[in-house]
């Protein structure tokens, strides 16, 4: 495996913009040229830059949107990228504004003013949007409706153009660049989850690995991930309750050499007891995920490579 520091220059690229927050980038890409390993780590729900207009429109105050965040998962992603040499793409725009793990048409139009709704009738709404977690989140269990007012189509269009479209265009470009250099690429779509309930005698999973039931990556990637977490002593589950969302659906192409794995980590394992600030477990989580990325980099480097592609050790 290549040394992450071996003649590679880290390059930061700010992309998109956050409407209502002048000068604030919607996301940041940290890329190495040349790439050290064929992996990019993405954190689409790590954003914490809230424009004043968003905070004013919240029905219950700023505290409730913390439950929408993958709280401080961006710090974990950054630590893992620094330890392994992986490329890194982190959203700064918050999920409360727009969910980057939802399709741009996954919209609950009932939360929009009548004049902003599509002409000719309401489109079919997905299960996720009906539950309140569509492209723009509407409600949370225990909190009810999030917003004081209905949204309008201009706000939606601006958020898609400023945040959603450039984020996914950048992710596609990075994956294509990695595949060009290595003959293959791996996306680790990193998320965090609330602690899962346990059953008597069965410990709850600390990690959920999602591959869209085999559609998003080669089986050897998942097998290696489970073997790694078993060695770390972390209980892992497969696809339930999180199989992967729009990010994997859009970008994974195993037959074309682009593999993708969604990794959900239990927030209680790296945050404090209130699940608000970094806790004592953050360092060990970064260490274990760094080991995962290094291991999976070796696995994918042996996949889908045609004649002439460099070996992982070159």
At CATH level 2, the architecture is 3-Layer(aba) Sandwich
In order across it, which strands form the biggest sheet? Answer: 1-2-4-3-7-10-8-9
- List the total number of helices: 7
Structural class: alpha/beta
Task: Tell me the distance between the termini.
Answer: 8 Å
Quaternary status of these chains? single chain
- Outline the low-pLDDT stretches: 1-7, 306-314
CATH class: Alpha Beta
Rg, nearest Å = 19 Å
Strand content: 15-25%
SSE string, helices as H and strands as E: EEEHHEHEEHEEHEHEH
Helix fraction? 25-40%
| Approximate shape | globular
| Topology-level CATH name | Aminopeptidase
Q: Please outline the major beta sheet.
A: 8 strands, mixed
What features would you describe in this structure?
The structure is a single chain. With 314 residues, this protein is of the alpha/beta class. The chain has one domain (9-301): Aminopeptidase (3-Layer(aba) Sandwich). Helices cover 29% and strands 17% of the residues. It is built from seven helices and ten strands. The strands form two sheets. The chain has an eight-stranded mixed beta sheet with strand order 1-2-4-3-7-10-8-9, with helices on both faces. It starts with 8 loop residues before the first strand and ends in a 13-residue tail after the last helix.
